[in-house]
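dumping this here before i forget
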Amino acid sequence: MAESELIRVLVVDDHFVVRMGLRASLNVEPDIKVVAEAGTSEEALQAYRQHRPTLVLMDVRLPGVGGIETTAAILNEFPGARILMLSTHSGEEEIYRSLRSGAAGYILKSAMREHLLSAIRIVAKGERYVDPSAAAVLAARLSHRSPTARELEVLRMVAKGLSNKEIAAALKIAEITVKQHVSRVLEKLDVKDRTEAATEALKRGIISS
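structure:
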């Protein structure tokens, strides 16, 4: 196959063994070639600028600047970039944010090899792909109301076990305001108490542990 017809892939993952495994698995395909690897957001941007790959296979959870933010940065500089998110998680918020950042696809690391290859070829053609096991989760997310930025701050502190008084002091707001934020968070997450809110938020990927 001519070089110009190959699907040229940039693999972005902070684990060396994962990158090596993906390279070995993909490079045996006649129409796919891994042209570069990166372990951080900065390396990913540099590699994209240098190699201009057909597709980026992007780990969602990079250290420091994460994969979702890196995706947005690449697309801001290269609007035509095709990015397939790769994740070990299927939390609804993570899937939603990944696609909202501009990624063309989302697939789980637990997916079978043939599914990954299919996803790569679909996204490389300019089409969208969402892992079937994540599609239902995404549909559920689209029916939920999102916490505001301030409510997320409060939710993270609730998950750490802080009281309303402690949260109010940390955010320099009135305690009654914190109570209002907590009440709205419980309503949006459809839970009864603070413990359930923290558990549900972690489960959905709205906050991380």
